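Much of what follows relies on a compact textual record of a protein's fold. Each token is a code from a learned vocabulary of local backbone shapes. The record below shows the convention in full.
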Amino acid sequence: MSYTSFTINLKKIYFGILLFILTFGPKFLGWIDFIALVSFFLFIYYFIIIRKPINSLLLRSILPLLILLLHCFFLTIKAGSTDFFYLYRTSRSILNILGVYALCELYWQTFGSFSLLLMIDTMFWVITVHAVIMILMYLYPDFGKFVYNLTLSMEPQAKIFIGWRVTGLTEGLGTTSVTQSIGILLAPILLSTKSHLIQRIIVYPYAVIIIFLSIMISGRTGLFLSIPYFIVGIGLIFFIQKRHYFSTISHFLIGLVFILIIGQLFIFNILPKDAIWRWKHITLPHAFEGFYSLKETGNFRIKSFEDVIEDQFFLPSDVVVFIFGTGESGREDSSYLPSDVGYVRFIFGIGLVGSILAYSFYLVVLIYALRILSDAPVLGVITITSTIGYLIAHAKTIVILTRNGLTVTSLLLSICIIIIQKNIKMYKVKNNEYNV
């Protein structure tokens, strides 16, 4: 390996570590937020030290959140509350977006046009590495407790789910599963850009299985999203590789089957026995509750989803609260809100005004994605699909402006901005094929 190649690979690893921290950086000891910290340093470096301006496209995307920040500030002052949930979430979100954008621009300056696909590939491996951490936490509960002691200070949620559900380095279960499911969307697309057989048959199929397992041990919301994500990903393979579509899919499926057989024959024999018991008797029945219910009662039922639909969708009776919100998270003992639904919690917390501002950010992302569809159709579809996925998942639990999910959205937003700004064409037509 030449010195130049070594330097490039070293930079890829360095940038990958930064992206990992921006996506899954924990709150060390429960309060030192690594995502906010790294975002801040990237912001300082890119926008202040090397004096790059905040361009108009980026400014338009964060403008709704800047207004939302003022809204949350006045709500907090008016209520005289010590609940800074929405105030902190909004300010951290703005910083997170700016930090991710700075990293993406640094990617572009370092790797050129190759950086756009490299960022997507790196995000896939960031999700895969986090999946490995989650699985280790599941297999070895003592390791899980060690991680929680460092990141969540053993909050009640962590204590409850030790051994059968895992949050990884994050704080949420459903929200984590949604972000992990993005890997299912990205895998088929990245697979179609790889020419080495070992990548198609072993590397990417193996990574997909690891990601899927991490979704199963975190939350069913991501499990449900994985289905449309996989369908969209497979469809995009056909779009990218019309002539070699069948061979790409065949390699991928052969790899999946091979790894599953090897896993069944060998890997299960070396795993901790208590982990296998938990997998068979707790995790699988929970992940596939609907199918277990269908087998036992003849009805496909998922109790937690039914509870959400029946009991957790409601609106404030106070008109002022409905319009402006209370500024409270709904998780304090004195103002507990009996709903996990993101849309409901936002209405109570920041009102209709604040909710519209928060969702406007995602609307801007969708608009930018639509703008690049003609020049970068694959990245446009990825951005639209993942953004809609987050908006759908918000109906089950809060995933809008969450720590890890926002980094994924911000990365895709930043790529859209770079493509629009630099008028990049992300495909070439050759031999009736679309190449990313």
